[in-house]
Design a protein that fits this description.
alpha+beta; Jelly Rolls; 9-stranded mixed beta sheet; 8-stranded mixed beta sheet; binds fe (ii) ion
Amino acid sequence: MKSAKVSEEFAAKFVAEKETPYTRWVRDEGLEIISSFYVPDLHAVELKPWARRGGRAVFLNHDASRTSNDCYVCEIPAGKSLAPQRQLYEEMIYVLDGRGSTAVWNKAGKRISFEWKAGAIFAVPLNAWHQHFNGSGRDPARYVAVTNAPVIINAFGDLDFVFNTDHDFKERFDGEPEYFANKGEQKGLLLDTNFVADAVNLPLFAAKERGAGGGHTRFSMAKGSMNSHISQFPVGTYKKAHAHGPGAHVIVLSGEGFSLMWPEGEEPKRYDWREGAMIVPPNLWFHQHFNTGTTPARYLAFKAEGVAIRNAQGVPKAWISRRLGGDQIDYADERLEIRAWFSEALAKHGLKPNMEQAYEAEGKQGQTTF
Ligand SMILES: [Fe+2]
């Protein structure tokens, strides 16, 4: 794969632009940024003590998403809590291991708390004080979070302002008692909620536009600008390849399979996954997800709006056929080897592809019929 690497002399001309207030902040916190777009197991990724929060953590970011949004994995020690914090950036959380609770309150003193366990997702309301408690005295609790800290920290460059601003965004959160209730209202493909107790088993809405009988539910939690979605696809199927902007953090919730990723014009590379893996497709790389296991495969994508490149109607181009000017490759236009690789991987489980219906559903223009 071409790395776009240049000479040290050439790189030196841009050295002052490589560091940002955000990367300096992570370093000053005593933490590392793992620059990877593939993490095989978030449960096992190594963490370091994080004095500010009182837990252990690591940041995970590829160069392509470091200025749009970021990701960190954090562990709350058994029987302990993290230090309370408020922040001018948004944060979405998926609980990987353990159980616990979170208290959220504002300057006005309105306070609520809610419980969570592995499989829960929620978001921290903008600049609300929040504190996470481990509910077990025996086992650590671990979560993965995606935030827009790089945008905010780089825009202001003033950590005191980012972490100590005394302002309640009351439109976002005002101590509503049901704020983190496990319920939501459906608006198209969007589920209007701030808390999902069990993302692994949440019933999804049907979405055939992405291929092969998929389920899809979108979230916009805590009235934030960052969004997320859960996608599921059946046994023996794979999704259509597509490309979009940087910063989609794809976390595998269940199932087994692999993803192919490639920049335009290059050979696809294979990344195997199962529950707990994370893939962050780099900017405009094509990527395609294959279920090779014996159960449906489900993933959660935490994103920032910069991921979506939209057409004039507001539809993400990753949902629209390349034949129509979009960024999704139709099954009819994909490389034939892809189907052979998929069949081989399925055969290891004694399974066969179940794609005929999906191939037939593609209309003449390639777009799967709506
Ligand atoms: Fe994608």
